[in-house]
Amino acid sequence: MKLHNILTTAVAALGLATAAMAQDKTKVGFIYVGPIGDGGWTYEHDKARLAVEEHFGDKVETIYQESVPEGTDAERAITQMALQGADLIFTTSFGFMDPTVAAAKKFPNVKFEHATGYKTAPNLSTYSARFYEGRAIQGHIAGRMTESNTIGYIASYPIPEVIRGINSAFIHARKANPDVQFKIIWAYTWFDPAKEADAAQALIEQGADVILQHTDSTAPQAAAEKAGDVITFGQASDMAEYKPMPRVSSIIDNWAPYYIARTQAVIDGTWESQQVWHGIGEGMVGIGEITDAVPDDVKAEALALKDAIASGDYHPFTGPLKKQDGSDWLSESEVADDGTLLGMDFYVEGLTGEIPQ
Amino acid sequence: MDLGAIDPALLLASLMVAATPLLLAAVGELVVERAGVLNLGVEGMMITGAICGFIVAVQSGSPLLGMAAAAAGGAGLSMLFALLTQFALANQVASGLSLTLFGLGLSALMGQGYQGVKPPPFPRLDVALLSDLPLVGPVLLSHDLMVYFGLIICAVVWAMLKYTRAGLILRAVGENHDAAHALGYNVVGIRILAIMFGGACAGLGGAYISLIRVPQWTEGMTAGIGWIALALVVFASWKPGRVLLGAYLFGGVSVIQLNLQAAGVAIPVEYLAMSPYLITILVLVIMSADRSRAPGSLGRPFHAPS
Fold it and tell me: Which portions of chain A are predicted below pLDDT 50?
């Protein structure tokens, strides 16, 4: 009897001890759409994960799963992560939206953060970056530098995020050079180096001397380098290994400050559901070094544009702007509201072709 | 719409480039399956070959040495499969799937530090004067050597299976391993050779992507081509000629659809994007309406009665 009591107490104590230890460490999970080594999108998310580990040291443990396919299978991966005891889970691709919503319903005590989506819940936040601000600067450089007046654009999926990027780049390319034409290829993938290389090749063969990409690998950079006289921009990551040509600048996603802040909020118990959309001004979107391959005056204009956007003096979607069908969208000096931008499903005037439905 | 922007010569040239990794991997798997073994690890062997070839090409500065290393890497990984299925008599489907998972992980590990590294350029065929001919030059005579190698290997496999004694034995082993064994052929030995050949071809196909087509190393860069090669072998009814046709169709339609998109053709992009799969399957299914069928012993384990 006595022995039994001792044992029970010991077990209870042990249980309390492990529970206390588990509470000490906050577990943060990450679901990635591609491999960490893609050199682009997922690479930057993982860099931010490592920044979280470094910032919090022993207080936080991070786990991740890479190359999770978008769609229903993602729910299994998220659920598994929640069952592993994650307190906070970042799902880092648009296609994880509905699986994240479903998982958030199943685990009300776990906090979820979904990148680039628009559905929230009491324990589900969304966060995204205003990449279109960076696209405006790319568009300007592209418009000024193209000699064939043909700019190739490798798009991924027809979602508002991608369409916004195309529109923003096109508006500013046209402003810099009224003769510019865009050729757009929908690759229907975020990551497929061989296909991205083929798409870049097809665009170059059809006369494009600037390639913009919304896919995650560095393959289009390599294709442009092979072709010679073609310029590109780093996507999601700096892609500095292709400096100074073909990569003349880049959009860099900087998630680390956000991930650290949200992890801190979970530790402090102050986490609340929110919708965050930060741009160049807040530092979530970075513009990589503009190389010497860009003429000095173009570089100065691009940097001035960057400063104007960062300070809020200029919004990339400022009227007068018309939609592709010629109908009015924004009147003189009117600025697009976030709601329209988040759901953008139309091209602006001047773009050719149709958006796949 | 601007169809004039598409240069047919350049299009045909990039079609052959797009088809080559698929052709190499599929021809290798065809030999394996004709020997009665189902190796689902093509994707894993391709990606392993891709990184082995990449590392050796970068370190030695010789892309041809890289190709040799890719073949060795793919064949080496396939030996693991041979060990599991031919000696331990493990289930071929499960072993093949795990080979793919293992290959993806192994290649990611080996590739640490090789992201963003540029491989040495691959030599191209350059026949004096002839390579400058219009149309014929760019389409037929100015490719990298591996494009021709893929065609040659396909022709050799076809001739071997059809006309040689070795091919006959290989087919016998695949059709009925008990009968082949009774005739005194070393079923396990022949199958191991076939598996190695398949691994080497898959490795070459992978290295073609990392050294020539893209050219760079990125984790998971084969992105499912190994699975398409597997499907292609089935739809091609285990015939080398049809594998060649299927690979060129698939590669061709993939490239053409990208070009049509860039030219702004008014076909909805969804249809263009699915067209390579659709057209390839359709053509090969119609062709296999004859009485071709899978090798009789495909996927069945063989244990020599003693």
Answer: 1, 14-21
